[in-house]
Amino acid sequence: RPFYYADIRVDPFNPNRIYTLSGSLYLSEDGGTTFRTIAQSVHGDHQAMWIDPRNPKRILEGSDGGWQVSADAGKTWDVVNTFAFTQFYHINYDMQSPYMTCGGLQDNGNWCGPSRGLFGGILKSDWVTVSGGDGFFTVPDIAQPWMIYSDAQGGMLNITDTRTGTQKMIYPYPNRVGSVGDAMISHKYRFNWNSPIALSPQNPGVVYFGGNVLFKSTNHGNSFSVISPDLTTNDPAKQQSSGGPIVVDNTAAEFHCTILSISPSPLDSNVIWVSTDDGNVQVTRDGGVTGATSSGTCRGSNRMPGWRRLKPPTSAQGPRTSWPIIIRTMITRPTCTGPRTSGRLGRPSPATCRPARSGRTSSARI
């Protein structure tokens, strides 16, 4: 099959005039015998098109960069940039005053902008690009907020000095990252389309980055070490090539068995929670280096001391008991309140659970 957003539009007055939507926009004027690329001045990844049924020269067209209008059947395009179409994956901020807000945009890079403009309001020109690609995590350094960590699809990690614009690639494993085009099954490490970056709240310079293992740097990303085993299910069935038989996908959006979130404790630098896109939630309470053996193992990987896997309950145990059962696999039974019904509609309120031996450092709402 072609890529997921590939599509065809036909001029309602001229069936020989055919538009095809894909990474680029193509036009045929001979019924599909030949095609040529059009709209090369606008953002790629074309996913939507409307041709005016009364005037086919008037076209509205949408891509990963927003939307554009043509009044001459695709010869020229006017990019409409007065609408708030921005799609952020994640938002982070620094501790400056006024503070800077940073985030990654879908196929439009990583950006930062002030919480207050020079004259009060915030202008589009106040926002600056930190790095390119599909934007995801954009995280200012705690002690040096002008140094910003950001990543693009499939594990492409960078650090940018916004004072000078200097950017450095700091991939933990530079071989085979990004939209690599092949299956993950033979790769040493796997990175999600949306690989997470997290900074230690206590230790400036300590950076965590998620692949299928957890990477840690103690020198602002100049070097990384692996501090966990494979924390995913490592299911081979989920690491095969995607797409086909016409073309394969493998853009990094299809990569599976990867870490999706990292949450270091704000109170204890040794406590780090990690979740994966295939359902695992795991925690280390000693920085992943030493400690008690795991109560659950990760299939296809060696067990590393210090990591504990939280096991989900069976469906028969029901949602009311889910969180205590998960926590009990790693620590003593937590204290929970709720869920309770409240409000005019009798909707249940979330349960709040606090692990018995770590109530000082973590809680969870389900």
Defining traits:
four-stranded antiparallel β-sheet, 1 helix, flat
Could you explain the architecture of this structure?
The chain has about 375 residues and is mainly β. The chain is built from one helix and 29 strands. The protein has one helix at about 320-330; strands at about 5-10, 20, 25-30, 35-40, 45-50, 60-65, 65-70, 80, 90-95, 100-105, 110-115, 130, 140, 145-150, 155-160, 165-170, 195-200, 205-210, 215, 225, 260-265, 270-275, 280-285, 305-310, 335, 340, 345-350, 350-355, 365. The strands form eight sheets. A four-stranded antiparallel beta sheet has the order 1-2-3-4, with no helix packed on it. It has a four-stranded antiparallel beta sheet with strand order 5-6-7-8, with no helix packed on it. Strands 9-10-11-12 form a four-stranded antiparallel beta sheet, with no helix packed on it. The longest helix is centred in the last third of the chain and has 7 residues, at about 320-330.
List the helices and strands and how they pair.
Layout: E1 7-10, E2 18-21, E3 25-28, E4 36-38, E5 46-51, E6 59-63, E7 66-70, E8 78-80, E9 88-93, E10 100-105, E11 110-114, E12 128-131, E13 138-140, E14 147-152, E15 156-161, E16 166-169, E17 197-199, E18 207-210, E19 214-217, E20 225-226, E21 259-264, E22 272-276, E23 281-284, E24 307-310, H1 322-328, E25 335-337, E26 341-342, E27 347-348, E28 352-354, E29 364-365
Lateral arrangement of strands in the main beta sheet: 1-2-3-4
Order of helices and strands: EEEEEEEEEEEEEEEEEEEEEEEEHEEEEE
Oligomer status = single chain
Low-confidence stretches: 290-303, 313-336, 338-353, 359-366
Question: What class, by secondary structure content?
Answer: mainly beta
Task: Please state the overall shape, judged from the principal axes of the Cα atoms.
Answer: flat
Average pLDDT for all residues: 82
The termini sit apart by: 39 Å
Query: How many H/I helical runs?
Result: 1
> Would you report the number of β strands?
29
Largest sheet: 4 strands, antiparallel
Strand composition percent: 25-35%
Q: Level of helix content?
A: under 10%
Radius of gyration: 24 Å
